[in-house]
Specification:
single chain; TIM Barrel; 45% helix; globular
């Protein structure tokens, strides 16, 4: 068997807090991890990344391993999130994308017609042997701490490819979606295959859970999401059905999309800070565990405010069928790492 594609069983004990909460078990206190916990808020991260581009760092197992482990050591979080970027698999299949500091992913040749879609080839495990190697190293280092793999969802990836970079209005994306539906579905179908393959590589190497990030899905109406996006997100999760691990689905500004997002097939739905957790849990049927949802901006407030809000989120989570504590989006770069550590200690004490 090819060692680069050999499946490694997750080493995480079946009863880790993350897996128990994701399975709907009511716990004395929730597991806690933070989106973007491995990143710019940590001085050790900035020192390690100095002189190295984001994409280069994401493809270097030594760096990926160390960066992923940094917040686990510093904060004592209950899960590690694999250090990568949502465009890594797109670059791996040959697309010309640069992550520009202060801007984000910039696409040299935006997708606007069927010929642009046809040049996007499927992702093969041999395209990302370094990703599998990084996951294997992390699983060995983390021991009882679960490693969460991740990928970008088809809509969010499509938005970058169509717009040519980050966008507030997603105008070109919506225009193509409605005016060229055949091109749209061909594009999202291919991106669903790529996201699924990227997650498969991480799971086969031993990741204990996965999260699909649909950061920009909140730009859509519920009708557009259901018609143009849901089938493709559903295809990603359906491709992972043979992996009995927690699968988390997260988007920003998705209060009106929570029910269709739940129906995509994930066992846990991430909730941003705009919707109370217990309200979100009720909207998705009252039987699906949730993840979230402290406003990341509040981590810049005084400690009494932070403590009050953390306790509120935990209390709302106790009324849900399972709760994983997290932020409602990623850690902001100006966040004091000491505050994150203190939040973890508070949650562990509840």
């Amino acid at each position: 068997m090819n060692p680069m594609t050999e499946t490694v069983a997750p080493r995480t004990p079946a009863r880790s807090l993350l897996l128990r909460a994701a399975a709907g078990e009511r716990l004395a206190r929730p597991p806690v991890w933070f989106m973007r916990q491995a990143g710019r808020s940590l001085p050790e991260y900035r020192a390690l990344r100095a002189g190295t581009s984001m994409l280069q760092a994401c493809r270097t197992p030594d760096l990926v391993t160390e960066i992923t482990l940094q917040p686990v050591r510093r904060h004592g979080v209950d899960a590690a999130i694999f250090f990568s970027d949502i465009v890594v698999p797109l670059v791996a299949v040959g697309l010309d994308i640069e992550i520009v500091p202060g801007t984000g992913p910039v696409v040299a040749e935006p997708v606007r017609q069927v010929a642009d879609v046809e040049r996007i080839r499927p992702l093969q495990p041999d395209d990302v042997p370094d990703i599998a190697e990084s996951v294997r190293r992390l699983v060995a280092e983390l021991g009882a701490t679960p490693l969460i793999g991740f990928a970008g969802a088809p809509f969010t990836l499509a938005s970058y490819l169509i717009e040519g970079g980050p966008s507030r209005e997603h105008a070109r994306t919506k225009a193509l979606m409605h005016s060229q539906p055949a091109v749209w579905h061909a594009l999202l179908g291919r991106l669903a295959e790529i996201s699924a393959a990227f997650l498969q590589v991480q799971l086969s190497a031993g990741a204990a859970a996965v999260q699909l990030f649909d950061s920009w899905a909140g730009a859509l109406s519920a009708a557009d999401y259901t018609q143009y996006v849901l089938p493709h997100s559903r295809a990603v999760f359906a491709s992972l059905a043979d992996h009995d691990v927690p699968k988390i689905h997260f988007g920003v500004g998705t209060a009106e999309l929570l029910e269709p997002m739940r129906s995509a097939g994930a066992g846990v739905v991430g909730v941003d800070w705009r919707t109370p957790l217990d309200v979100a849990a009720a909207r998705i049927g009252g039987a699906t565990p949730v993840q979230g949802n402290l406003d990341p901006a509040l981590l810049l407030a005084d400690w009494p405010v932070i403590e009050r809000e953390v306790r509120r989120v935990v209390d709302e989570g106790r009324r849900c069928p399972g709760h994983i504590f997290n932020l409602g989006h990623g850690v902001l770069p100006d966040t004091d790492p000491g505050v994150l550590t203190r939040v973890v200690e508070l949650i562990h004490s509840l």
